[in-house]
């Protein structure tokens, strides 16, 4: 029964749904099947042959086999006991009576006692030999299936067949960004051994299909030591699918990737020893404490037992949850759970670290603390790949980043490079001097300043006005920085009452939104 339930667990994603459905299946194949066979075995119905056939089929089900086995064993016991009592009573009343004489006294018992076999394990009913044999065979088969599934024999066989006969390649992208195209040329044209020496992580034409849906299309990328690469994109862009391929959770449709020279397709076990992974959703055991969780993963990573406490306390201190180290996981806040998951990814000093939205649920102060800790890890020579929806996080951590749309890279480069190339304009904030000795509800006039901005920055848009603060969005990129600052300085020195001003490039968030408008809203990150 245990291996059968283990196999059924692969069919469900939600535990409560799986529990409900398997309870219904077990009741149907157990109690209902047992009652059905009992009814069909009634001679007067004329359905005995159908009942016998179904009985042989249902014997594969462990709890049906157990139930009928208990019934048949009790039947053998009951008939043996009753017949023995009958013969004893008969002989006590008639000293020289034979078994045939006893049957003549009470003919109705002949059917049950004439060919009585006290062997419980006989093959014919009511023996339980069939039940035991079927249970042993079924259990052995289920156990073999469990091992085959756990060692991914079926999925590997399916994958090899697909790769040999139904391989689906990436689709070439038209009008690709020049930075992305240049990266592809470097990865595709450089010899493999040279690439593996130059880069810690190499991704070459990484592609993933879910049936006919192209989730990830021919990604090419090289990441070096001490580099933090950010993968941006809205839900459905292909980020999580890319992460799952890089960790070996899902098979690659075509292409390949290498982590420190180990291929994900052919050397998966060796590759997985070199990575630390913080998943998007915390994979923690609620009833363990944070210390026990770190200790468990430290032992799995091969750290000596005597050093586990030191490692746990060091990580907890680095990520600022030392005072919560002895609390159960279910008592931790969402932010502390994320810090614990990130700490687990660093156990064993892996050279490559994957972080899937590590700051989700954290307050700003905690985020900044985590940023500093990850910066120290990055500067220590580690390679980090992270996905995030936080532009602040990417600007603080990432040395390079890419915006992913519809399974391809739309842009690639450092934060400043992307701002310089794709920012649509500038943000201008002007603070007006408040009139002296004015009441709290009286504010300075901004009409002259508005006219000044409109005259000097013709392609400008007033985005926000609050009391003495004006926020403009200037879309004209042809005006040099020096000229814009010169105009604003002249305005500040004139009678416009400008107390202060700020002129800066558009934020990374605006660059991100520029590309994500092209996203097709198809959920391509879920397997079929």
From TrEMBL:
The keyword Nucleotide-binding applies. One of its GO terms (molecular function) is ATP binding. This is ABC transporter domain-containing protein. Residues 201-431 form the ABC transporter domain. It holds the Pfam family ABC_tran. Keywords: ATP-binding, Membrane, Nucleotide-binding, Transmembrane, Transmembrane helix. Coiled coil: none annotated. The chain crosses the membrane at residues 21-40, 128-149. It comes from Hypothenemus hampei. InterPro entries: AAA+_ATPase, ABC_transporter-like_ATP-bd, ABCA, P-loop_NTPase, R2_ABCA1-4-like.
